Amino acid sequence: MKLFDLFIQRAPNRIFLSIVLGALSGICYSLLIPLVQAGINGSGGAASGGDSAVFLGFEVYQYKLALVFFAICAFVLVTRSISQVSLMRVAMDVTTELRKTLYQQIARAPIADLERIGSSKLIATITTDVGRIVFGARALPDLLISAVTIVGMLGFMAYLNFSVFVFVLQAIAFGVVTYQIPVFIANRYFQRSRQRIDSLQEAIQGLIAGAKELKLDADKRERYFQDVLMENEYAVLEADKAGNTVIRLAANYGDMISFFVIGVIAYVFINYHAITPSELTGVVMAMLYITTPIALVINTVPSVVMAKISLNKVNSIMRSIPAESYPAAKSADVPAWNELRVRGLRYQHRGSKDEAGFQIGPIDLDIRRGEVTFIVGGNGSGKSTLSKLLTLHYSASEGEILFGEQRLDADNFAAYRQRICAIYSDYYLFDRLLCERKPEEEERIKEYMALLKLEDKLAIEQRRFSTTALSDGQRKRLALLAALLEDKDLYLFDEWAADQDPSFKEVFYRRIVHELKARGKAVIVISHDDRFFDEADRLIYMEQGRVRETIDRPRLALAAESVALAAAVIPQSLGRPAAAQEAFAIADQEP
Ligand SMILES: Nc1ncnc2c1ncn2[C@@H]1O[C@H](COP(=O)(O)OP(=O)(O)OP(=O)(O)O)[C@@H](O)[C@H]1O
Q1: Fewest CB atoms less than 10 Å from the CB: which of 191, 386, 476, 477?
Q2: What is the distance between the alpha carbons of residues 551 and 554, in angstroms, rounded to a whole number?
């Protein structure tokens, strides 16, 4: 994707019009000086006429020429304005369009890739890069108008005196070539600054999200402030300062090129070439006249350079976010299922440079509708990773998932995922209900608000929560309410009850999970709440990325029946596998 292509793709006609009007404006702009000179010299030919007229009480000398002059001024004003306004509006559309493309790409990205890239980089791209691209691209009409003006003026000089024209051309070529050296150096600094913006963004997130922890300890706060936040801030500042200093010096050099050339023509060139005083005046006027367009070209170069750097960043982010290749499908496109079977499933997280990523599998398990499956195991045993495989966010490297008799594949992936509802441990609470509105919704909302004791805390108006400024437990209950209003086949709760008080743990395990089971849903509960393991129809115990033990209800009930076993077996199954094995071995020996 190239800078100008963005604009052409968005509005080719408006861009064409803008370029034509910009070019016309540049041409007319460059006619003004020859006209003034013609007026001064009284050699305006037929147009000047040499007569004077009275206009609004003022005497106007060579009124025809004056008329042409002011008409051109008005034309330049109109065409330049239309060209600039039109391109500016396209630029604004392009900003929104570019952001929209990024939003869509993020929405379509696999979760594993979003986790790998991290939110800081994505936010920096959306906020910093898109703005810079459009700012740079917006300078393009001015560049065009200036370039045409410069070309027009050079043409005028060629008409006045060809050897002056050749000299000026050479001087400009020399200026442009030498100008590239500082631009190259500045470019390096700007690239360095852009690389540090991602880290800075991450540091800012830490400052906001970690404000509570930082406030508790002044030393810690100071260390974070200096070593992380300001370190990145100063790195960006230094690189930007250096880049802008070089660019400024280059811009001043560019500004003065015209004057150097004027000086050389006025004091040196005339000694070696035949040039009349009126030609010399014309050339000097033309040179002074193009000082501004040359400065403008030179001053907009940094914005264009920045825009190109940002565009490269956006391109590289876009390339690093692959879109999921599953065709969009509706949940109705796949047959109903009763059992989800997982066979030989493997997945590996992306590792660091020195270490291979955590591996899960091979996993074999069955999840049935109308049953509650608990997934238990120690921290880091792979429960959440398995939950993202089961809810079809991670794509397994090996193995298969079957919904009933239907094997999960690229064609039905999106449709089956539509049938799943989950509250992850790192869930996000939206500020409104996003599920499809159902006729009985009002009734159910009332019922759940009462059950989850939320009715005094917030109201739901037009499907929007009146507040989400709630306690952690209340926020999670609100997320649960939103999930319960949906009608999916499979519900997964990753440590949902971890921050609920005992009464809500009871409500969750004994009422909600039961109710979902009674509605024929497949319910997966990832939990450390061993007190409620008796609610499970099946308990899957994970260890080091593998299913170590699958315990079905009869066996679980048997083990739990004995007080000794209940105390010894189930808690130990989380941390002391040897004892758990022994206890289940005893349970298994029961007739
Ligand atoms: N996005 C990720 N990228 C790389 N590695 C990851 C990622 N998420 C988890 N891991 C690794 O996978 C391992 C298992 O993590 P997982 O979150 O699945 O465990 P868990 O059983 O849910 O733990 P807990 O009970 O603490 O929530 C961890 O050791 C972690 O290092």
Answers
A1: 191
A2: 8
